[in-house]
Amino acid sequence: MTLPEVHIVIPTHTTRHLAATLAAIGASENPPRSVVVSVDGDDAGFGAVLAGQRFAPLTTTALVTRPHQGEARLNQVRNNGLRALRDLRPVEPDDFVLVMDGDMALGPRSIGQHVSAAADGCDVVLASRVNLSEDDTKLLSTALCSGDRAEAAAMMDRFWSAGENDLKVRQRRLERQRQMRAWPIVGGMLVKPHKPKLLGGHHSVRRWCMEALNGYDERFVGYGYDDDDLARRLHFRGAGTAVRVDTIQAFHLWHPTRAPQRATDAPGYRVFTETWKPRAALGIDSPSAQPEPEIQIIQKGAATGV
Q1: Tell me, what CATH number does 88's domain have?
Q2: Which of 94, 128, 210, 222 would you call most buried, defined as having the most Cβ atoms within 10 angstroms of its Cβ?
Q3: Number of domains in the chain
């Protein structure tokens, strides 16, 4: 079996942890073919951070920007990254697009583990993360940004072990939901439409599957439920799902949360509970209004034709 290539899309609105996020990707044992940083804004500082990173020679890196629109449009920014991938280079239908927030750090084997899930014939990989404290975030970020790969990897292993029990519990729960959903006739009635849950800040989807859904629903503005919406549409389509919560290392780098005290107070809750369709009305091929995004090539991957 020919394994798919991986293209990473990183939506962000801040450079706070972006250097550490990119440094972790640069230290990967399985480099991606593309890294696209898609920004909810147009500050020049993002280009400086991306240009300061070292990636494998075959990796294409690009920055997508457009002026901030006065409200958080995460799904639009994600789709801007997907549209840039399509414009920059050929992405095969079976290739994986790994979408991760700009406050995440992947372990050195994590990208390869996303790829290996393809051996099971899956279309979607559901992964998770360990939430780091402010102090641990500083330690890991320092190791990553200084280029001390051995220290960063050892630190990740320690942090991962500390959260392993919780991850295994979550793995069992999501795997049970995945299995129940596969039951003929009754499966869809036993599990909520958006379960097993997809973590918006760390997941991968085959390109053809994302295109079939028209990407992320850009009606979601502000915090919450955008990832539940994508999961609901993927499950409705019958996308083959692999749960890798307790095996693919990822770490959430600390920052103050924007989450409301009650999930139902999130702006996205109203949109999530409205009538929905399997294919997003406002998505990759039909974006909501915005200034034309600017795409800047930072590194041209060898033999890519970009």
Answers
A1: 3.90.550.10
A2: 210
A3: 1
